[in-house]
Amino acid sequence: MARTAYVTDLKSLQGECSANYLRLVRLVGDMEAGQRRDIALRGDKQHFGDLHLYIQEQAPYTTMVDVFQTGPLDTVLEGPRMRVHLYHDARMAEVTDFQRERHFSGRYRYPNARMHQPDEKLQLNRFLGEWLAHGLAHGHTVDVPEMP
User: Fold this and answer.
1) 89-106 pLDDT per residue, tens
2) Angle between helices 120-138 and 10-28 in degrees, nearest 10
3) Which residues is 84 bridged to in the sheet?
4) Which Pfam families does the record cross-reference, listed alphabetically (predicted)?
5) Where are the alpha helices (DSSP H) in the chain?
6) In angstroms, rounded to a whole number, what is the distance separating the alpha carbons of residues 113 and 107?
7) What is this structure's pTM?
């Protein structure tokens, strides 16, 4: 049976990027370049690690945010790490770097040398959405306010 070529679902990708923009804006608030926010991810009685948001760069129409997680398995595995561009004029956030790999296409032939899925870009942005939604629903800030 012949496999049909994957067609990029722009509507889903744009919807995911728009939702991620809103999630990130809620999490970073009024942070500025060089600032970091740490969010503890907890279950009922279990600590699953910390979600970190670091504002790498800020410009009038864009912000670059590093999103990464640390946790109990850090000595064995490196946690997920993403760089996300927020486009304020379009109100969208897009994953542009994942695990130090950059520039994802909207569609890949499969199989391919890098073993990307045909819809790799959409999957990365969905993963970011699930990750941020979990942080919003179950996270607790571990930022310590500065004393006057």
Assistant:
1) 999 999 999 887 777 776
2) 30
3) 65, 95
4) DUF1249
5) 10-28, 120-138
6) 14
7) 0.83
